[in-house]
Amino acid sequence: KLNDAILGTVFILIAALVLFQVRTFPTLPNQPYGPGTFPGIIAAVMVLCGGALVLNGVRSQAPLVTLSGWIRTPGAAGRMAAMLAFVVLYIFLSKPIGFPLLVPVLLTALLCIMQVRVALAVPIALVTTGAIWLLFAKLLMVPLPLGLLTEVIY
After folding, report:
1. What whole-number distance in Å separates Cα of residue 105 and Cα of residue 111?
2. pLDDT tens for residues 17-50?
3. pTM of the complete model beyond 0.70
4. Chain-centre distance of CA 131, in angstroms?
5. Which of 16, 57, 103, 120 satisfies CB 3.0 to 4.6 Å to 3 for a cystine?
6. What is the pLDDT of residue 75?
7. Which residues touch 41 (CB under 8 Å, ≥6 apart)?
8. Between the CA of residue 121 and those of 13, 106, 113, 135, what are the distances in Å?
9. How large is the average pLDDT for residues 133-137?
10. What distance in Å separates the CA atoms of residue 75 and residue 60, rounded to the nearest whole number?
């Protein structure tokens, strides 16, 4: 767990970068606001919230980083590394292979690494993939990559 002061500082730094970049946005003629108005407002709120987090973190006098008990369990680092590896694999393989073919395989493998039985991991991966597909592709109208299935579906 990170101390609130660290997270607050990160918020303030990101907000400062946004505020610095917003100055370069063009202005609209005869209007007091433009394309940089909304990002500027959000950045200002981030500065305020970041400041509140920094104050809370300093007042708490908690250590900057505290490791939870679960991180010390055997295999925890390997499971975390597997999760990051699967995210990277998805980024690189989702377009050529496609969401509907890649995600069930990755999710089943991840569940098996998390010590879920294969007989349970496969249906969970298939149902989860279907639910995500329906949510994004049909309800939110966000196209997910079809990859190898592009020719089959279209």
Report:
1. 10
2. 999 999 888 887 888 778 888 899 999 999 999 9
3. no
4. 19
5. 57
6. 85
7. none
8. 41, 11, 10, 21
9. 91
10. 32
Do 122 and 108 meet the contact criterion of CB atoms below 8 Å apart?
yes
Residue 135 and residue 87: Cα distance in Å, rounded? Answer: 20
Amino acid identity, position 107: L
Over the chain, what is the mean pLDDT? 91
Q: What angle do CA 85, 3, 45 make, to 5 degrees?
A: 90
CA-CA distance, 114 to 147, in Å (whole number)? 27
Rg (CA), the chain: 22
- Structure-block tokens of residue 149: 């299935």
Q: What angle do CA 110, 114, 105 make, to 5 degrees?
A: 20
